[in-house]
Write a structure and sequence with these properties.
The complex is a heterodimer. By secondary structure, chain A is α/β, with parallel strands linked by helices. Chain A folds into two domains: 240 residues, P-loop containing nucleotide triphosphate hydrolases (Rossmann fold), CATH 3.40.50.300; 33 residues, no CATH class. Chain A has a six-stranded mixed beta sheet with strand order 6-7-8-3-9-10, with helices on both faces. In chain A, a hairpin with a 2-residue loop joins β9 and β10. In chain A, α3 packs across α4. Chain A is globular and about 65 Å long. Helices cover 42% and strands 22% of the residues of chain B. A six-stranded mixed beta sheet of chain B has the order 6-7-8-3-9-10, sandwiched between helices. Chain B has a four-stranded antiparallel beta sheet with strand order 2-1-4-5, with helices on one face. In chain B, β1 and β2 form a beta hairpin. Chain B starts with a strand and ends with a helix. Classes of the chains: A alpha/beta, B alpha/beta. At the A-B interface, α6, α10 and α11 of A face α7, α11 and α12 of B.
């Protein structure tokens, strides 16, 4: 679906010099995959995400989306329709006075006929569980609801890939749960390919695959179980380790025989009660 | 010296159809030197409560007293109280506005009418408290900094007022793990140096690690005001309020349910390790004595 090859990107920094944000990143994402990207601020996560729908273009290397090179400008709009982006702050993404108008904004700009737009908007709102709010004013919704409307606005464009850049960072625990349930549903039921940047390890655990970035490079790329069982490596990168993995590490060092990939409380209870 | 709230009620948009009872009969005493956590669902009244402490909101009924001064009085000495009670809002970096880090932090002290040398001293000290190098940062524009650095500059702006009480409303929201750990470590350090701290947070793991006393708010009321450890033992009640408990505490509850004899008021990974190893040792001993 997405093929990133030796991607390099440089930014002009405020001191006037160049800063390498991506240093030769290669990555393939398959259709239907749920990929989480973790890493510190400044590690290049968001820069990479913006390359996936041609918001940024490679200085070197290439990004191919469904066979289309992002550098070839004649495909730009197709690529952006195919790869939808959702950002951190829902307040910056909502523009209309009612929820349904907001979701209709994208399809309207594609020049789709009104009856079809109605259908797209209804379907999109249904897929994020916000149908009953369609006449409401977006600014009166909770954070989680706003973010779900923002997701619906992208879903209404019928993309194949959804790229979410820290979509839950500004939400409370309930809002985070709502958004994650929506993302998982879109992945499993609608077959959308998901690329989600997050700082919350409990969200990364839900993905099929976790990519760890550090200083513009991919340093780990594996299943969440494999990634999070490498407690020492994650700590060296100063990333969070899920608490059960950390406890497992401590207990194993103290001589208890436990499987090396314990992610959840339930798994820990099962392992200890064997 | 302390912060005292006596039977505080607060009603938003009193007399309109939107009337909302945001605080109901709040009684609270926070003593100098304490580190208090405040948790609760969005809309539970946490932010409304802390805004009462430095007089940004005045109670509809009841009294708010800071160090013998009544904040809620008609002619309360608000300027003095706001200097004494530093409030760091959510996303404080949105309030940065000056051209340089120095000017931004100096804004508050300048408004106190302090001498230039004293202002410089305050800015230096505030930057030091948030571990940013004075010489390196003072001339930079705050808008060129990273998210974590911006937030530290914003906190330094509050610290430069030399407050006695520091209230932080979700100071780590939106930061990456490294930024979060740095801010929390600095808050813990400020507390060790004698600052009274009130930490409003959605992160149970953070309050479990840092605070000794925990307030739980729900629908405008303080439901629990006890030792942090004690509060997290009310697992079911907290869940009913839509709140979580630290992951290791959850594990201990599950193990207990499986018949393990472990303490349930465990808050950290280290404590959990100790409890589990002890229980395993105990089980082995019992097996041997049976054999």
């Amino acid at each position: 679906m997405i093929d990133v090859k030796n991607l390099e990107h440089q930014f002009l920094n405020p001191q006037g010099g160049y800063q390498e944000a991506l240093k030769g990143v290669s990555l393939q994402i398959k259709r239907g995959e749920f990929v989480a990207i973790i890493g510190h601020n400044g590690s290049g996560k968001s820069t990479l995400a913006k390359h996936l729908n041609a918001l940024l273009l490679p200085d070197k290397g290439s990004v191919i989306v469904n066979g289309k090179d992002t550098k070839a400008s004649d495909h730009l709009w197709e690529i952006r329709q195919e790869v939808g982006m959702v950002f951190q702050n829902p307040d910056n993404q909502l523009i209309a006075t009612t929820v349904e108008e907001d979701v209709a904004f994208g399809p309207e700009n594609l020049g789709i006929e009104p009856a079809k737009i109605r259908q797209l908007v209804d379907d999109a709102l249904k897929s994020v569980g916000m149908s009953e709010f369609k006449q409401r004013a977006p600014h009166l919704l909770s954070g989680g609801q706003k973010q779900r409307v923002a997701i619906a606005g992208v879903v209404a464009m019928k993309p194949n890939v959804l790229v979410l850049d820290e979509p839950t960072a500004m939400l409370d625990p309930l809002g985070r749960k709502e958004v994650m349930e929506t993302v998982i549903k879109l992945n499993r039921e609608e077959g959308l390919t998901i690329v989600q940047i997050t700082h919350f390890m409990e969200e990364a655990v839900l993905a099929d695959r976790v990519i760890v970035m550090e200083e513009g490079s991919i340093v780990m790329d594996d299943s969440p179980r494999e990634i999070f069982s490498q407690v020492q490596k994650l700590k060296a990168l100063r990333l969070d380790v899920p608490p059960m993995m950390e406890l497992r590490d401590h207990l194993a060092q103290a001589g208890l025989d436990l499987p090396r990939d314990i992610l959840t409380v339930e798994e820990m209870v099962m392992a200890l009660c064997r | 010296m302390s912060i005292i709230l006596e039977a505080v009620d607060y009603i938003y948009q009193l007399g309109s159809v939107h009337e909302t009872n945001a605080l109901k009969g709040i009684n609270l005493v926070i003593k100098e030197g304490e580190f208090v956590g405040l948790i609760g669902h969005t809309g539970s009244g946490k932010s409304t409560l802390v805004q009462h402490i430095n007089g940004l909101i005045k109670p509809t009924k009841g009294k708010v007293i800071v160090d013998d001064q009544e904040v809620s009085a008609k002619r309360g000495k608000l300027k003095e109280i706001r200097q004494k009670v530093g409030l760091v809002f959510q996303y404080p970096e949105h309030q940065l506005f000056e051209e340089t880090v120095f000017e931004d932090i100096a804004f508050g002290p300048k408004n106190l009418g302090l001498a230039a040398t004293e202002i410089e001293k305050r800015v230096k000290k505030a930057l030091q408290m948030v571990h940013l190098d004075y010489e390196k940062y003072r001339t930079l524009s705050p808008f060129t900094l990273s998210g974590g650095e911006k937030r530290r500059v914003a906190i330094a702006g509050v610290l430069a007022m030399d407050p006695k009480y520091l209230i932080l409303d979700e100071p780590t929201a939106g930061l990456d793990p490294r930024g979060r750990d740095e801010i929390l470590a600095q808050i813990a350090e400020l507390h060790q140096q004698g600052m009274t701290v009130i930490l409003v947070s959605h992160s149970m793991d953070d309050v479990a690690r840092l605070t000794k006393r925990l307030l739980v708010m729900h629908q405008g009321e303080i439901i629990y005001d006890q030792e942090t450890r004690q509060v997290f033992s009310y697992y079911e009640k907290l869940q009913e309020m839509g709140l979580d408990i630290p992951t290791v505490t959850k594990l201990m509850h599950s193990l207990k349910g499986q018949g393990w004899s472990v303490r349930q008021d465990v808050l950290t990974v280290e404590e959990a390790k100790r409890e589990i190893l002890q229980a395993v040792k105990q089980a082995v001993k019992e097996e041997q004595s049976h054999a």
